[in-house]
Design a protein that fits this description.
421 residues, alpha/beta, Fumarate Reductase Iron-sulfur Protein, Chain B, domain 2, Rossmann fold, four-stranded parallel sheet, 8 strands, globular, binds iron/sulfur cluster
Length: 421
Amino acid sequence: MDTGQCVHCGLCLSSCPTYMTTGLESESPRGRVFLLERLREDPSLLNSHAAKALDDCLDCRACEAVCPSHVPTGHLVEAWRAESAKSEFSDLQPEAFRIFRTVSRPLQLFFGSPKGLRWFQRLARLSKKPMVGSWLTRIKWIPQRLEGLTLGLPDTIPRHLSRVYHVKGHSNLSQRAMLFVGCVMDTVYADTNRHTADLLSLGKVDVIIPQNQRCCGALHMHGGQPDIAREWARKNIEAFETSGASIVVVTAAGCSAMLKEYQELFGPSDPFRVRAERFQNAVVDITALLPELPLPKVDKPQEQVQISVHDPCHLAHAQGIKPEVRQMLQKAGYTICEMTDSDRCCGAAGIYSLTHPEMAQQLLERKVSTIPQQVQWVAAANPGCILQIQSGLKAQSQTPRAMHPVDLIWTAYQRHGFLSE
Ligand code: SF4
Ligand code: SF4
């Protein structure tokens, strides 16, 4: 990865959310690449302004998607975060970032095992109780941000992890998929994973859910902690290898983008590197897989149901998946009503809405303002985006609700008798 690839053309500027919000060159991809280049030459040049400019990057990869020189700005900033976290300059990073690093080991207890995930699920359910919700917002650390997150949670949080879903076996089917359940998807959005398994079975794919899989590690990677991400990557690779599956199906865009880059976590001499390459080549986001499956077409349109699609950064920019979501929703009988800049970041960006609440809020307000008034649903194939957009819609008392496209497609098939309850 090289900053020297940048030819300073500026083609990336208008796609960068932080540049479009602030108008500052230092908050643009070109400015960040320049900063990184200078810091590589002389690390002592780092001051709080430079650290802020780099930390403000959402890692949304919008710049990478348009850059003619293929400068991997998001990756470069991510690598800088990991290095600076270990350096004498770590004090220059935003306070919330440092707090995240401090609590990330205990967070492993939650996201690192099914038992921890069950506790996380219970806490999420508890936070929906009105008394508990208002008490939580009085906790000193990030009260407003916590309030925003609980507002975005679905009204009903499932009682069981999606990984315990009993998938009906189809051993005569040619393709076997490992369903990667994730952490937030396994708990808060467990129903989406269950609906995914149903749609895969309807599309003649055999589904297996290995119990020894772990969180993808994306949040830790974005937070500059590749060691934890690497530890979980090993577990996921082993789970896939022993599952007998030929593909890994993922329901969260942030996770699929991370899993598709597992090889980068391991050095050339690491025995896991080859295994990681095999693993990442098998990863497919559900939104890219569904159009390829022999799923039925719903001839009768879903009367009056209009949907707008938000394209998560890690789906549109990192994986180049955009039209597929619309194709599937239309096949299920829905009408699409496009929003402006559907692939502009909503401000969720992993832990960004916690570490950079002001910028995240500005991006969220812009996103909500672009949602067409007449739609009932906003389809978003990433849990962070669903949470963020849902909280923005609720805060403004707007009627549309954010939902994963899989849930909308499942509902249409279920209503038309293609799926049982
Ligand atoms: S990062 Fe890419 S698009 Fe942006 S100025 Fe450099 S070469 Fe041009
Ligand atoms: S990754 Fe996103 S926020 Fe960061 S420089 Fe690129 S476009 Fe801007």
